[in-house]
């Protein structure tokens, strides 16, 4: 079976330490969580930044500090989130790619996002896609609905995205597709044949849909961004147990874990 890429998503844009005290929010805490996840088999680190009051931020100084702290200690591939947080203006979010991470997310469409709004205006998305192309940063395309996939294919057809495309199929955000296996299979069937993909399953269905994704050849994401619980009613004691569980799932399914170097080849970085 093809090797599986595990991405750790340690922090996310919404939860705070009140929701789960183990959530890493300072640069040091985020770097510690990423290094531990790398030892447990993660090849990519999906990074959201927080300020000293735990609010999502696109402050490039905080991003630089996190990237340096991680880079000093391991070779995990850093993927900066350009989603950042619902209240951070798109113009601040897009500037994060100037730090030249190996990878960054690209959210192709605006949408309702829980009780908030996730603004990704068409002109801004095109500008960000072009900038990532010019800087050689691999976009991870976050698709929360079939229309988002169509939008990405249009960007590809216009030369703003280079193949092979890499997708995150996001399930379970209120405002996007529900977290069920039918929606996952529908999306996987519609992807271009040479695309790579992972499941991002938010909340309760995180474990089941991560397992389905790995079983049918996808990559996997693990961490407190996507679920605060290790099982119903029990908070995860950090990112490590979630990453370790995903590594065990991959192993049980005969999917060897891709190293960062192998991931560069698999994802066409
Ligand atoms: N928080 C996830 C639902 C991003 O960071 O750009 C989606 C996400 C997007 O990870
Ligand atoms: Zn994210």
UniProtKB/TrEMBL annotation:
GO MF annotations, alphabetized? 3-keto-5-aminohexanoate cleavage activity; metal ion binding
Q: Which UniProt keywords apply?
A: Metal-binding, Transferase, Zinc
* Membrane found in the keyword field: no
Checking InterPro entries in the record gives: Aldolase_TIM (IPR013785), BKACE (IPR008567)
Q: Please, which domain of life does this record's source organism belong to?
A: Bacteria
Listed cofactors: Zn(2+)
**Is the keyword Transferase in the record?**
yes
State what protein this is by name.
3-keto-5-aminohexanoate cleavage protein
Native species = Amycolatopsis pithecellobii
């Amino acid at each position: 079976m093809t090797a599986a890429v595990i991405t750790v998503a340690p922090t996310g844009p919404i939860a705070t330490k009140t929701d789960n005290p183990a959530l890493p929010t300072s640069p040091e805490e985020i770097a510690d969580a990423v290094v531990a996840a790398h030892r447990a088999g993660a090849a990519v680190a999906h990074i959201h930044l927080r300020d000293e009051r735990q609010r999502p931020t696109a402050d490039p100084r905080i991003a630089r500090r996190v990237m340096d702290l991680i880079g000093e200690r391991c070779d995990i591939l850093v993927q900066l989130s350009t989603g950042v947080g619902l209240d951070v203006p798109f113009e601040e979010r897009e500037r994060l790619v100037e730090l030249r991470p190996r990878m960054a997310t690209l959210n192709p469409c605006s949408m309702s996002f829980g009780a908030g709004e996730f603004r990704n205006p068409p002109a801004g998305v095109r500008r960000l896609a072009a900038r990532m192309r010019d800087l050689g940063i691999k976009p991870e395309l976050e698709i929360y609905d079939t229309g988002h996939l169509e939008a990405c294919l249009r960007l590809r057809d216009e030369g703003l995205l280079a193949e092979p495309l890499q997708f995150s199929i996001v399930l379970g955000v209120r405002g996007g597709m529900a977290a069920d296996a039918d929606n996952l299979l529908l999306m996987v069937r519609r992807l271009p044949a040479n695309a790579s993909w992972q499941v991002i399953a938010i909340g309760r269905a995180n474990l089941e849909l991560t397992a389905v994704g790995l079983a049918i050849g996808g990559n996997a994401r693990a961490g407190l961004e996507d679920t605060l619980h290790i099982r119903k009613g029990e908070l995860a004691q950090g990112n490590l147990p979630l990453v370790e569980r995903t590594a065990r799932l991959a192993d049980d399914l005969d999917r060897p874990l891709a190293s960062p170097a192998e991931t560069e080849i698999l994802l066409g970085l």
